[in-house]
Design brief:
With 157 residues, the chain is mostly helical. The chain has five helices and two strands; from the N terminus they run H-H-H-H-E-H-E.
């Protein structure tokens, strides 16, 4: 067989593979739907046998949507173009999670999301200078320089 023939054969196999993968995803979605319907039928049958009424706020396990990798992480999306929230997003963290996770660096001081957000706020009236200890910690963890130029309101000691 010629090199061109092998290339055509490889392209054909790739196309066939993609088609089979798409069919597999389709059948997997159908199976998941059938399982959910069967679960609802079983739950209704059990309630009919026991006379139990479903609690209004309880969601069955099959009804809870699975959290996949492609879904957005919970938390407020940052509209700021500052490097710090971008670095947190890249690390898979929200500002609130970072604030909660770094309270140990300053025992007795509650580090809140709103306080951290003020260090890189878009509106001038909302901006506050970042304490030097936090700027140094962020520089060590995310590489954002601990300089006045890196933070909208600068750094305070």
């Amino acid at each position: 067989m010629t090199p061109e023939g092998w290339e055509r054969k490889a392209d054909h196999c790739d196309a066939q593979s993609e088609q089979l993968a798409a069919e597999g995803r389709f059948h997997e979605a159908i199976a998941q739907s059938v399982r959910a319907e069967r679960f609802r039928e079983m739950a209704e049958g059990m309630r009919a046998l026991t006379g139990e009424k479903p609690a209004p706020n309880i969601r069955h396990e099959m009804q809870v949507q699975a959290h996949t990798e492609g879904q957005r992480k919970a938390g407020r999306p940052s509209l700021s173009k500052h490097a710090f929230p971008r670095a947190l997003e890249a690390a898979g963290l929200t500002v609130a999670e970072w604030a909660r996770g770094n309270r140990h660096l300053r025992p007795g001081e509650a580090l809140e999301r709103s306080q951290v957000r003020s260090w890189f706020a878009r509106k001038k009236r909302d901006q506050r200078p970042i304490p030097r200890r936090w700027a140094k910690a962020i520089e060590a963890d995310y590489g954002i320089p601990a300089t006045d130029a890196s933070w909208p309101k600068g750094i305070k000691d």
